Amino acid sequence: MVDKFVGTWRMISSDNFDDYMKALGVGFATRQMGNMAKPNLLITVDDKGVISMKSQSTFKSTEINFKLNEEFDEITADDRKTKTKITLENGKLIQKQKWDGKETTIEREVQDGKLIAVRYHLQLISLHPRTHYL
């Protein structure tokens, strides 16, 4: 089921992402760079079931390697050190990040040939930015 996520996805739009970054406490300069970035997202799966997600932009590139349902250490693009677990639920990749008593959830799904990060939740704050990739 994760096969539909495999490929190189090019960001075409992002809505309300600045609000999400503000809620995380990301500084103004970093938010400006984040808002201007149009990263490509490369998703691969190796023969052992390890999934790689590489986000590449002119400002910053990040990579995580993981197996579904297994917690791992992640350093996010805004330099948070999180304990992260990614699961596959109802055809969506659900990424949960925990750090400093906080938690955020990112849901990704493929709709009409596009990868969409449809929801970002931060603790009790529920924001609904949408990021679209082709």
TrEMBL record:
Keywords: Transport. Signal peptide: none annotated. InterPro entries: Calycin (IPR012674), Fatty_acid-bd (IPR000463), ILBP (IPR031259), Lipocln_cytosolic_FA-bd_dom (IPR000566). One of its GO terms (molecular function) is lipid binding. SUPFAM superfamilies: Lipocalins. Transmembrane segments: none annotated. Residues 7-24 form the Cytosolic fatty-acid binding proteins domain. It holds the Pfam family Lipocalin. Belongs to the calycin superfamily. Fatty-acid binding protein (FABP) family. This is Fatty acid binding protein 4a. It comes from Paramormyrops kingsleyae.
